[in-house]
Design a protein that fits this description.
heterodimer, A: mainly alpha, 11 helices, rod-shaped, B: mainly alpha, Butyryl-CoA Dehydrogenase, subunit A, domain 3, 10 helices
């Protein structure tokens, strides 16, 4: 039995033969030389097989049939790959629009924050961190009211608020804050009186004038008592002095507001306040309610 | 270009890019042409057909030795190629080699006419090889591809291709001697 060459021995021999070597050279001295030689001869025979050139008619027929198939495949491909029609989307906003949008959002946030802060500040008391905001917010209220009468009305409301602040601070024994709030109370009253004096006197004016009378008649005895109970004697003394000072100013204000009855207006001075020399206010042992 | 003699095949190995016959040097132009053909653009397919039909016919006829049968195999090869074109990915192996492998699978399934001449008996023996052996022997000896190129085109290892060549040659030798 002939010995068979290995696959690589055959490939090497085929390579040498392909390189132009004679069969005997390509085979070489090899245990399987005989079989290898037969395989190389077979390779030559296979390589010598020739195919015919297609005639023009065959090529034309093949082309016609193939291209007919192409038409069908193309139609199927187009049908399969037909792109879905997407509905047009809204165009993207321009940069200008985007910035306007961002600015709008920022303004809205600022407004919300501002309003929230102002509302929170309304609950603040003189010893609170938001009290300054509360005062600024009140200035806005004043600014939006144009006529002297309406401004006077706002100032009287603010005076009432300062009075309540004073009460709150006196109750907790914070004398300095109470004095500060009381001074603001009298200032608001003075300014309201000044505004009313220059305002046109109509039915609205009379209403505000009545408010003024009510606001300036608030008693301070309770405040003084609370300050003394909380050992805030200095503050109590200062408040009495503030009341006495306002009592002096009040006569002139009343004269401007109602010259005919100025001298007869009662004075809501606290007990212990200095009497008004030559004025209409008469201090008494019991504060005027 | 006629059929490859044994010495012609050596020349093909060292010749610069001949994409149609060697499976090497695939140009970017051919790749773009195939990509267009994968969308069944008629012009692209017409160009591919013109570039490959004669070579494919000679290749098939080298195995069959029957022009009428070769025409039928070539027709069926193009038919199958059109069906499988969208899945074609072996750009590096070459379009011609892809067509030849389709033709090989069709030849392996085709009925064989009676062999009279020695050449026809050899062709008949080749067609009786297993599909894998037929693929390697025809690509090696008729298409003139190297072992590496056959490995790349068929997706087999070099060792496996060498082994298939060896077994195919021994089978043919056995047929010849008996």
């Amino acid at each position: 039995m002939l010995q068979e060459p290995s696959p690589h021995q055959l490939e090497d021999a085929l390579g040498r033969r392909r390189g132009g070597a004679a069969i005997i050279e390509a085979t070489g001295i090899h245990p399987a030389a005989e079989q290898l030689e037969a395989l190389l001869k077979l390779g030559d025979e296979i390589g010598a097989l020739a195919g015919a050139q297609p005639d023009a008619g065959a090529v034309a027929r093949l082309r016609e049939q193939t291209m007919a198939d192409v038409v069908g495949h193309r139609a199927a491909w187009v049908h399969h790959h037909r792109l879905p029609v997407h509905r047009g989307r809204h165009p993207l906003p321009s940069h200008g629009f985007r910035w306007t949008f961002v600015l709008g959002i920022a303004i809205m946030l600022a407004l919300v924050a501002g309003v929230s802060l102002a509302l929170a500040a309304q609950l603040a008391e003189p010893d609170g961190s938001l009290y300054r905001v509360k005062l600024d917010t009140e200035q806005v209220l004043l600014a939006v009211n144009r006529s002297p009468t309406s401004k006077a009305s706002v100032r009287l409301q603010l005076a009432s608020q300062r009075y309540r602040d004073t009460e709150a601070m006196a109750a907790v024994g914070k004398g300095a804050y109470a004095v500060q709030a009381m001074a603001a109370y009298y200032d608001e009253l003075r300014q309201a009186g000044g505004l009313l004096a220059t305002a046109h006197r109509d039915s609205g004016w009379k209403s505000v004038r009545d408010q003024f009378d009510a606001a300036e008649a608030k008693p301070i005895d309770t405040i003084l008592t609370q300050l003394e109970n909380t050992h805030q004697a200095v503050a109590s003394t200062e408040i009495k002095a503030l009341a006495a000072r306002f009592g002096r100013d009040r006569k002139a204000i009343d004269a401007k507001l109602n010259p005919s009855s100025a001298s007869s207006t009662p004075a809501p001075l606290p007990s212990g306040a200095a009497p008004q020399p030559g004025g209409g206010s008469q201090p008494s042992g019991t504060p005027t309610p | 270009m006629g059929s490859y003699s044994y010495t012609d095949m050596a020349a093909i190995e060292v010749r610069p890019a001949e994409p149609v016959s060697t499976g090497r040097g695939r140009s970017r132009g051919e790749q773009e042409l195939i990509l267009r053909a994968q969308r069944y653009e008629p012009e692209a397919l017409e160009q591919l057909f013109d570039a490959h039909v004669e070579e494919l016919f000679r290749y098939v006829d080298t195995i069959l030795g029957d022009p009428a049968g070769s025409e039928e195999i070539v027709r069926l090869t193009w038919q199958r190629a059109l069906e499988g074109l969208p899945r074609y990915r072996r750009f590096d192996a070459g379009f011609e080699t892809w067509l030849q492998r389709i033709a090989n699978s069709l030849i392996a399934q085709a009925s064989m006419p009676a062999a009279e001449e020695p050449e026809d008996r050899l062709r008949a023996a080749i067609r009786r090889l297993t599909a894998d052996q037929l693929d390697v022997i025809t690509l090696r000896f008729f298409a003139g591809l190297s072992i590496e190129e056959i490995a790349r085109a068929t997706g087999r290892s070099r060792v496996r291709v060498v082994a298939l060549q060896h077994r195919g040659m021994l089978a043919l030798l056995h047929t010849e001697t008996t």
